[in-house]
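To whoever picks this up:

The parser on our side crashed when reading a file containing two proteins. I've narrowed it down to the boundary between the first structure block and the second sequence. Both blocks are reproduced below exactly, byte for byte. First block:
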Amino acid sequence: MQTRRLTSYVTQLTRLASMNCYFVQEDDGLTLVDTNLPGSKSLILGAAKHARGPICRILLTHAHIDHIGSLDALHAARPEAEVIISVREARLLKKDCSLDPGEPQSKPRGSFPGAKTNPTRLLSEGDHVGHLRAISTPGHTPGHFSFLDERDGTLLGGDGLIGFGGLRVAGDAPWYFALANAATWDAHTALESARKLLALNLEGLATGHGPAIIGPPTQAALAKAVAHAEASFSRLTGAVARS
């Protein structure tokens, strides 16, 4: 597993060149954001030995297999660590794919293997986990959340945005990373979430897949991703209307 220090507080851990999870430094230790693929436990714990402090919290952006794959194994190794996920996504963590009234009525897509581990805390919009502010960003999944480090403006965006092909909105990933599109529940909702993030004036953006963007290029990259998705979805809607 490759590690890269992105900011004073965030370290990116990458497996198989494309699967990211993150350590966020807090005063009492580390928050692990997502748990990567199954079989990542030893790699993550090994990386933690070189970081500053124990893993105190496991924070999940969403319940797809490449983000919760090592949750049960890590929970067994660190049972004292908090396990935190959004209220809405907690159902998908238990393989409950039912939809709420008012949500797009398309079945959630991608692999939801579930987990034996029960969350110890459920998040709503605006809650804090250490210095991370929870931001509801549905679209890739119904209960997807992103997390903003309020110390420096770095966003951990999960799969709401994809870091390949420049930055792209979920559902508008390039053809060579089409799996992200196939696993996106509702692309138009993902676009609305990306517009919401654009209003935050981010200083950095780290995603579940692909390289991070740190510093001044962040806002321009996000604006470009939103514009690309708007154009792509508009063309698709027009093509459907003509057919």
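<<boundary where parser fails>>
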Amino acid sequence: MIVVPTFNELENLPELVARLERLQIELDVLVVDDNSPDGTGELAERLGAERPWLNVLHRPRKAGLGTAYLAGFRHALAQGYDAVGEMDADLSHDPTYLPAMLRALDGADLVLGSRYVPGGGVRNWGLARQIISRGGSLYSRLVLGLPVHDPTGGFKLFRRQLLERMDLDRVRSNGYSFQIEMTYRAVRLGCRVAEVPIVFVDRRVGQSKLSRQVMLEAMLMVPRLRFGRLQ
């Protein structure tokens, strides 16, 4: 099951669903909608009514990216899925990478769609955002000692057994740092990590959810993880 959090993604969701449908691989999708004012949740229901593989989890209000993913992970585990993935709804994560990521999962517990390995990259980003992203990745890698190139990315696949071992109730991050924390906790458990190159394309429609507050949270969360204050 692929978990896709949404908040005001009305214009992007139909194209994402169409791209996933064209893959013709065996997977289900869970849209976790935070009561989007633009009607994304209702649209997801209409799309799901015609597609048995598309499910919707409605939450009463906007409660953060991290809690949306955790709600989706818990739902997938309760439904008995062997693998659980996460991706953005804004088309920045191209579903055509999923087959390669699924193949990589055969020999790994966690697969990262990585922008910063050979063959990966970003598109339509300004210089400032590139510096922030690469700097954030380098900062978290150095402070946490992470043996991965893209710890801040949000295109991932987890084996069920890994999520069960991680104790999701202990995850504290709820913004940009959620991705760092999940990867860090997985590495601390000694899991096998594979990185598959992806090209991240900046959203064409809608507004980015990345704010100064979210970035500040990430900066502060990294040393808290490193020195064990979240254990």
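After patching the parser it read the second block fine. Residues 127-144 form the longest helix (18 residues). The chain is about 40% helix and 15% strand.
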